Amino acid sequence: MKTRAANGKRRTTGDLDAVVLSFLRAARCLLPALVFLLPAPASGNWYDAAFPLRRPLDLVTDAKKVDADDTAVAEFYAPGVARPDAGDIRIAADDGTPVPMRLLQFGPGDRVRVVFNPKAGELRHYAYWGNKSDKLSAPKAAVINAGLIVETKALANIDVGGPRQMAQVWEHSGDVIGTAVIDRLFLGYNPSYYDAPSISRITGTLYSPDDGEYQIAASIDDRGAIRLDGKDFLVVPGFPEDIRFNKTVTLPRGAHPIEVYTVNGGGDWRISVGWKRPDSPRVEPVSADAFGRLVRTKVGSLEEHKKQIVADVQYAHAGETILDDRSSYRIKFETPTGNARNPRVTWDFGDGQTASGDHAEHVFLTPGVYPVTVSLKSMQADDKRTLRLVVGRDPLRMTQPQVDESIVQAPIIATYDPSKLSPAQLAQATRICARARQPDAMFKMLSALCAVTKHPDQQWATDAINDAITTADEKNLNAELAAALSALPPQSNLHPKAATLYANVLLWRTTDFKQAAAMLEPFMARDSANLKRLRMTALLLDQHLDEARKLLDQLKDDDDGAKRVALSGAMARSIEFFIEQNDLETADEKWDEWQRRFPSTLFDGYAAMLKARMLQRRFPQQAAKVAEAFALALPTSPYAPQLLDFASKTLAKSDPAKSDALRKLLKQKYPEDPLAQEN
Hints:
By secondary structure, the chain is an alpha+beta fold.
């Protein structure tokens, strides 16, 4: 999911969006808590022993008392529901009295969303489930007297017009896939947690406090419309940073039915509706009070009928590492051990990884629904629980996620068994460890990634290999890099890109020319000029000149005429310029382009000289070996003496014996060359 940063632009006091960020920072007050409270002692009468599981729901309200016509909303995880549609969910007061309720949404995972009318005067209620009877009677339906109902449907075509057309499209768009109750028209996320193209209808009652003129303004991402008092009112074609989409209307004091439609193409889902009341000097977000009093709840620990030791999966979002458009999620887990003596807790996170201890921290490398299992053993009893956890961006911080640097998540990932990870998870793990400069963990993940034959996302896997190459370069761990890349099978669907990357590592980082030629040999049947050029280079440097020339015969320069010399020379001079400017990355890119367009220039000698100069700055040993190999392969090249001289001088301090041997070879082969006269 993409995120957008604030641009810091100063806004006028009349702009609706001037208060957007402040409200988004307060969004945690607008969403029912998904992070469970600390264990609360069991209390109250059990509604019905046929419902073995329950969670306490404590009402959060500033009102002096709770009335039976109030509307309360709760969201919680219910592991062990007995029916596929969660039809066994019931809500009861602390004394066991059932109350009217409505199941809004079940799933994804074991996540449940309900609305209910609380028992008058009671602040604690319970959600019950687990009744396996097939003769359950339906609960009394709750009356929603406050808040706004959000109903979302999937949408194939987001090209929808005004309010009436949106209403028609919503009616004919199939089944509702998500339902929620919100307290105001000010959100930065889809409360149905659906991020594919969709259309949502938001219905409720707007209470105007006074007779008079109201200016109503809105911003909706991607577009939307408002109907008020049963009539088309306002078309909202986007989410600007001002109140340009507005309309003034005269309203009598009292209740006004309101419908808001949102059409979203996926990704960001934002809605902001404000008004300038008769007694207000500016447009402000419509407060929650204007839609009635919606009561929120705090969710407590899981309880099981007549059991003292109950394992429960409790969690908190801790951070998110964002790489391009992909995220991994760090979550902290705990299970209450209560009065358990000598408790022993183990975790299975549903992705092949495990941990122990009543507190655990885990990184989920990809979003999804994971069966998280906690096992609690003690001297009194044992218990085990599996919860289907929805892993994704923290819904309390949809627009401003708590960002982890890679170094925060990498040490956790380093403990993972790569054989249990999917290709997408391996790519993410490799990238995070590479960005964190954690080479041991990176190579472990990279080896497993390369061994995969079929990658569902080839570009993401290739990006991971590139990140690993960058880190290996910085750490001068190219031998280890080559060993990890050697796991690439010829039939991998990452080729030819992966073969190109691996060949360049072998040629210019480990200077294992023989291995480069052998690795590339299976690809010669492919119609890939680039792989043939790379193998030609490897054969030449490995002293197989005849085989190299055979491959050159299959390649062609861009221009065989008089323009060849001019174009090739211009490209060589540009490479010289970037080397002198110490812009080696650009020089390397230009060198590759030069060789792709004019592969025959490799046999002239100057191409080898330029490549050696580029390598010399960071990899002097490799630079010397490339220079020596070319001079030996093409001893008649006019650049052969220069290359031997270059290799000798490059190794003068790091390897004096080798340097002297190269100097001696230069004098033996080219006694008349001025460079041979130097000491």
